[in-house]
Amino acid sequence: MLEDLKVLRPRFDGLITYTSSNGADKVADVAAKLGYRALIMGVYDIASREELDSALAAAKRHPELVVGLSIGNEVVFSKRATLDQIASSVMEVRRRAPALALTTTEPFHVFLQPAAQLLLSQLDFMLVNVHPIYEPWFRSASDENAAEFVVKAVDKLAEVYCGPILVKETGEPTAPEQAGYTPERQVSFYDALDRKFPPTRARAFAYFCAFDAPWRVNDSAVPGIRPGQEESHWGIYDEKRQPKLVVNVIPVLPKLTK
Q1: Regarding the domain with residue range 130-249, which homologous superfamily does it belong to in the CATH classification?
Q2: For residues 105 and 70, is the Cβ–Cβ distance under 8 A?
Q3: What is the pLDDT along the chain (258 residues), one digit of tens a residue?
Q4: Alpha-carbon dihedral 241, 2, 220, 173, rounded to 10 degrees
């Protein structure tokens, strides 16, 4: 964990995690020592009191670092809970931690459903996934088109939600090449997105994700759907912490350029 965060630190001062179980809550402790400025902690299993307790304890240990909790990751999309159940979970956590910003993560189309209004009313900010690669037109489109799709999706979300919107997942994997995924295209996409989607206090995007994860080919978010090979190759660094081409176009943070 320490070595991972050391690799990221020159270019990033904010982190988003997916879970706070199995020791992942210790990301907050390591990030604090390395001088990270913001951490959104994930709670993957909304039914796990133990995981939620771990996340809240980490937020209490590092109140200047932990800026929010994401209660669930694609739990509606994966049919693990309903929109209203997520809303109830967020309200329960708010009673325990009224000063902590709360959200959840779903693909953008889930938040656009009329049934999402109760949930949206409970969120302090929106944490959303917008993936052009899963659209039927992606293979024949340019990376300019893919980046524009992200911008337009956020525009649509802003019509139903008035708070800050942070795109938690977007991007392009770097393999397999036969499917049209390359390191060069990952660079091209993020270059286009950086130009078309400059960050503001109202909307921004995160780089997804930090490191390649070979085990993801056996980890399906949706029951019955086998992940594609691309799931192993989303990182901007590979599984050995070696930078991919895209890292060269992500600037080093000014305060660390010594």
Answers
A1: Glycosidases (3.20.20.80)
A2: yes
A3: 999 999 999 999 999 999 999 999 999 999 999 999 999 999 999 999 999 999 999 999 999 999 999 999 999 999 999 999 999 999 999 999 999 999 999 999 999 999 999 999 999 999 999 999 999 999 999 999 999 999 999 999 999 999 999 999 999 999 999 999 999 999 999 999 999 999 999 999 999 999 999 987 777 666 566 668 899 999 999 999 999 999 999 999 997 544
A4: -30
Distance separating alpha carbons of residues 257 and 41, to the nearest angstrom: 28
Q: Which amino acid is at 216?
A: R
CA pseudo-torsion sign 217, 220, 225, 230: negative
**Both tokens of residue 74?**
């694609």
| Cα–Cα dist 202/229, whole Å | 34
Tell the CATH topology of 1-117. Rossmann fold (3.40.50)
The boundaries of every CATH 3.20.20.80 domain in the chain are 130-249
Sign of the CA dihedral with 72 first, then 73, 74, and 75 last: negative
CB neighbours of residue 251 within 10 Å? 9
Residues carrying CATH 3.40.50, the chain: 1-117
Q: Which of 144-167 are b and which e, b meaning 16 or more Cβ less than 10 Å from the residue's Cβ?
A: eebbbbbbebbeebeeebeebbbb
The pTM of this model reads 0.95
Strands (E), 8-100: 14-16, 38-43, 66-73
Q: Closest by alpha carbon to 252, among 13, 2, 5?
A: 13
